[in-house]
Amino acid sequence: MTPPLESLTSCFQGLLPAQLFTCAKDGTPNAAYLSHVEYVDSRHVALSFQFFNKSRRNITENPHALVALVDPDTGQGWRLRLLYVRSETEGPVFDRMALRIEAIASYCGLKGIFRLRAADIYEVLSVDPLPEEPACEARRRQRESLSPVFTLAALQDLSARINRAETLEQLVDSILAGLEASFGFRYSMILVPSEDERTLVTLATRGYDEDGAGAEVRIGEGICGMVAEARKPIRISGLLRGMLYALASQREARGELPRPPIRLPGLPNPESQLGVALLVRGELVGVLCIESEVPYRFHEEDKTTIELLGSYLAIAIQNMQLHERAAEPRTEAHAPASRATGPARRAAAGVRREVVYYNGAECVFVDGEYLIRSLPAKILWRLLNEHQTTGRTEFTNRELRLDRSLNLPEWKDNLESRLILLRRRLEQKCPDIRLAPCGRGRFVLELGCEPVLQTRP
Amino acid sequence: MIDTQLASFLQEGLGIYLGTRDDALRPEGARALAAAIDADGAHVTVYAAEIAAERLRANLESNGQIAVSFARPIDDRACQVKGVCVGIRPASGEERPLIDGQWAAFMRSLDAIGIPSSLAGAWVTWPALAIRLRVTAVFDQTPGPHAGAALE
Fold this sequence. Notes:
Distance between the termini of chain A: 74 Å
Oligomer: heterodimer
Largest sheet of chain A: 7 strands, antiparallel
Radius of gyration of chain B: 15 Å
Distance between the termini of chain B: 6 Å
Number of helices of chain B: 3
């Protein structure tokens, strides 16, 4: 009896390379490695067509093919007898395969080289277990004992945590903490679109040695950047990713790839990665990226649940941004300094920090080390200058919004997320300059040092 | 056709597959366990579990066409040998250490790239058949600009 193709889903994740057998018109057989077999429906699979190789030429002459696959969980080998039907250069299957290939390639700085030319669709004529490659019983039992990840109880638990958050900062942290507590995802991060619309900036991370807040990714590059561009989830596991990662590391070591000022955190060699676009009515609120050391952590059905979860999280984030903004005190932009007590704090410190603002690059360096750029840099610079001139220490989000020098858009300025970012970068790199919240829409500049301010071109 | 350097690569314990076809040009394939290259570089003996190789026997006896792909997991160096089958026989007890040695090396290379060799814990490697072929062509299959190029 032929088992249903659905029962082979773990074979279709690309951890173990498959083998493709074809035959030329003249009767010469061909055997070649195949990185990935994509499940299409209960009667069809798709093979990626990236290069004009012998297998591809054979298929155009003779539509019969055979694929050998190994179940990466149990070791059971399978043989699929296939018949080439058509090549697709658009549509959901092509898009899904192209996106994954692009994401992997882009992650490694090889975008455009590993391009999908077509998704070749094959009818599956038969599925047979290979008698010489039976399943390892211990591994089969191990797989059967794994409990499902996305249970209703876990989703409910995450939802309860999110509902308890009172600020955007608490919300993003509780999302990541909830993903670990409710689902066991230890490594995760949330990125949000930056002011220049071409980059994403990391707002919160969890599980990594380095915090990574402020790390930037260009839209369209790497897994997070690809998710933002395509606005679709991307799930990656397996060997190809690992191979290309190694290649990229070598290129970076040789200086062929530029090093970013703040490195995006990540597991050195994750077994699986999942990127989810956080969308509200088509608008990109952010990107959630989850990594796992466990192979096949993310299955096809998980992706659907995570996509749903993504829209729920997106609504929660956007709702919190609107809520925080609406609840801001409507005090004057230049409110009198209610806590103009700077000198006492400054005197206590006695440490001088050289804070330099570069006008051209719109970035701030502290004691010669990169801190942050773009809007958060401009905000910090404005606060420090204001403090130096007037001695003020308490500020409101509203006055920043109304400050024309910061050039915030009138609507959807994402100020709260920029302040979170600035606060986190300061905590990591310059903890003696703090922005401490003191009520909704208000914060205090606390100085444990004496900043020496300089501007440079 | 196969020089000593290439022969030593092909015999170091690689991922090996055998491809054949029937008279209607439908492909058939199976994993192989080990390979031995003749000193003349023109003949290769490939060993596969009997239970797997039996699937190929009818095709090999009918038309003899065979393709053997070799790949090294750690760096994806790969090559394909095309040929014509000139004999099929049971592998002898004296050949078993050669088969076991190459298979063990292949398993170690899987572990080295993070694929647990325990996956193959129940796979059948004995009894084996020895399939001898006369080499007609050798191709580089390492991913990259030279993939598919004929090796002299």
